[in-house]
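Supplementary Note 3. Input sequence used for the single-chain structure prediction.
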Amino acid sequence: MGAHVAAAARTAAAQTAAGAAAQPDSPTRTGLLIIGASQSGVQLAVSLRALGFDEHITLLGDEDHRPYQRPALSKEFLQGTVESESLIFRSNDYWADHNVALVKGEYIVKIDKEADGSGVAHASSGRQFPFKRLALTVGARARKLEIDGGDLDGVLYLRNADDALALKARVGDAHDVVVIGGGFIGLEAASSLQKMGKNVTVLEFGPRLVGRAVGEETADYFLQAHRARGLDIRLNTSAKRFTAAGAAGNAGAVAGVELQDGTVLPAQIVLVGIGVIPNTQLAEQLGLAVDNGIVVDRFALASDGTTVAIGDCANMPNPVPGSEPGERIRLESVNNAIEHAKVAAYSLTDRREEYAGIPWFWSNQADLKLQIAGLCNGYDRTVLRRDEERGKFSVLYYRQGQVIAADCVNAPLDFMAVKNALAKGQNIPADAAADPATPLKTITTDS
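The predicted structure, written as discrete structure tokens, is reproduced below.
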């Protein structure tokens, strides 16, 4: 850290009070304004300091919480096995020592920006945040289910810390929970709630679980595994409306879920997890290109050539080596948030580092530990590896004889072998991989 950065850091530290990072009232222009105190926003600030970027950084979030890890919200935090403090990314001292002003609880409604990338962000509170350069790490918001009763007390979503706190506050008094959506969040939360002794029913509109992320064999494996563990999972099923309690004192609270066939499921909590919508409002106001996210190039630069957009909110060229020219994708994962932020940090320091890598994901549901390497889009063959005795399950996906992805349940060695092979441009021959007793790393070949 340079001397002038250290001096500025000491000044920021002196302004810190009552456990919160400094939030100066005067609109001093920051070197970089990061809107979104998310995983990608935190990583961008950290990566910039590692690269020697020594201008002042403002990291601004609309929640009244310090930046935190989200994956545990539907699992360990909900179950009470971890405390909120353990989810915090960095201490207040870290931000002060690295000349980063952490601003909480400010929602940006408008941005005035010049052609050189500088401008002023206006918050709903009336505060202004002048900047030299701008980064949008604004993530995504929960998709709402627009049906009758959707505004009843007890109809909840699980996207951020406040959502998780609201859910935790209600769990103790609830016996019946209906989870709408059989994706990762829905199944993680359903598994957690069942472990906490709740009667849980999962409703999935589509014909299989986790339909956007895994293939048919993996989806069927999870269906059977969750049902065997006691979850009531109903496919091809949707809610018609939410019904309200009629008892005195409970008016306005959800009491049940009426299905399309007229069946009514009792529910004191309805948790909706039907996907997310990227937050593109600010990008649209700025006139940036938007298409299922903020359109960026391989260097995380938006269409104006100065703003960077990172993580869940960004629509980028497919980073997987060998992807079709022009193929674009929006990824929702911790790994993408981190790696994409590193690329953006290079861009902001006038270097160019293309985003090229192998996406990977994970989801913990009860004792089922799913790890996904690569993207299975366009596969023409699968190889199933199943070890019932050890509770291991893997599906390898192939396109024209080349492995392109894998879903691995309680099989971390399979996951690492495929992930490493993809990163090195190697292959795992399908016929040899079919034997679950054969370690995949021993049959990996150069393509």
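Residues 1-26 have pLDDT under 50 and may be disordered. The first helix runs from residue 3 to 15.
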